[in-house]
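Consider the tokenized backbone below.
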């Protein structure tokens, strides 16, 4: 069945133009149509195996964000194959890649979009479509995907330390997450999706209010409800075998002279990431310049908090 407004057998050029205008159905059909040739390119570069499949999924996610870069919609197939080829080459020569979905908070727009505000609205709809699909992933897959593609914690080594799992498990979960995400995107293209920016804005407000409240020494009611009695600090700042509430731990860091400043927010419904810049004027203990809070929430309240510190390079 053709998507609303599309002919029964639309051309690649038609699908591309409509995808560039923000039609998620058209973009889903376009990626499905070109999946086989994209996989063929990956196999030619990486050979048979999970790396090739992973590269195809990563290239598809990149194409979701950069479809506006296609200057010749009639040649979209060649463009998609080039995206796959570039992804494969980066895998071969790079040990640390940039996130494939960076920029989703600020949708990628073509040069003439500023004169057409309706295109900006459609790009936001595409972002909401992607985030809704992310929310459908199992928690373990969702976490590694959010770290790799949305946050600054992007290397396999960093994600391994953040999630307390082997690097091989990081790779397998990412591969599973990308494959699942691609299927969910295709199956949900025509549905309505929640506004992802509302969740991000609310999480940003909570982060700023939490930092201010902890610095002032008191938590207003709306912020104290975010950190109920059952909240638990886990990982490096927690204590094995002992439940530790985040509030006294974070207050202790303030007393030691450490200050945190919100840098970036990644917000899902149940997993949220607050990335911080760190300063320590006169601090007793010196922290790395950056850290991230991984929060696992239920009914809007934080159940677990894991503070992640970047690993030294090399």
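A designed sequence for it:
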């Amino acid at each position: 069945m053709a998507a609303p407004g599309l002919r029964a057998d639309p051309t690649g050029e038609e699908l591309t133009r409509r995808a560039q205008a923000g039609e998620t159905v058209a973009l889903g059909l376009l990626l499905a149509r070109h999946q086989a040739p994209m996989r063929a390119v990956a196999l030619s570069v990486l050979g048979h195996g999970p790396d090739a499949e992973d590269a195809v999924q990563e290239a598809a996610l990149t194409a979701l964000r950069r479809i506006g870069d296609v200057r010749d919609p009639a040649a979209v197939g060649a463009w998609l194959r080039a995206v796959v080829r570039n992804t494969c080459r980066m895998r071969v020569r790079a040990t640390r890649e940039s996130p494939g979905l960076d920029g989703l908070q600020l949708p990628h727009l073509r040069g003439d979009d500023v004169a057409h505000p309706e295109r900006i609205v459609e790009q936001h709809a595409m972002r909401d479509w992607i985030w809704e699909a992310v929310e459908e992933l199992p928690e373990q897959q969702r976490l590694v995907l959010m770290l790799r593609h949305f946050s600054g914690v992007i290397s396999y080594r960093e994600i391994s330390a953040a999630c307390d799992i082997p690097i091989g498990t990081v790779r397998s979960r990412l591969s599973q997450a990308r494959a699942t995400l691609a299927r969910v995107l295709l199956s949900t293209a025509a549905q309505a999706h929640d506004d992802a920016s509302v969740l991000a804005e609310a999480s940003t407000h909570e982060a700023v209010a939490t930092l201010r409240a902890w610095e002032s020494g008191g938590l207003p009611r709306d912020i104290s409800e975010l950190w109920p009695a059952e909240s638990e600090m886990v990982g490096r700042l927690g204590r094995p075998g002992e439940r530790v509430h985040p509030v006294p731990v974070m207050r202790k860091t303030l007393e030691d002279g450490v200050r945190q400043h919100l840098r970036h927010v990644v917000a899902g419904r149940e997993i949220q990431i607050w990335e911080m810049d760190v300063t320590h004027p006169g601090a007793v203990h010196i922290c790395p310049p950056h850290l991230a809070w991984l929060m696992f929430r239920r009914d809007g309240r934080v159940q677990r908090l894991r503070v992640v510190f970047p690993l030294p390079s090399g």
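The longest strand covers residues 259-267.
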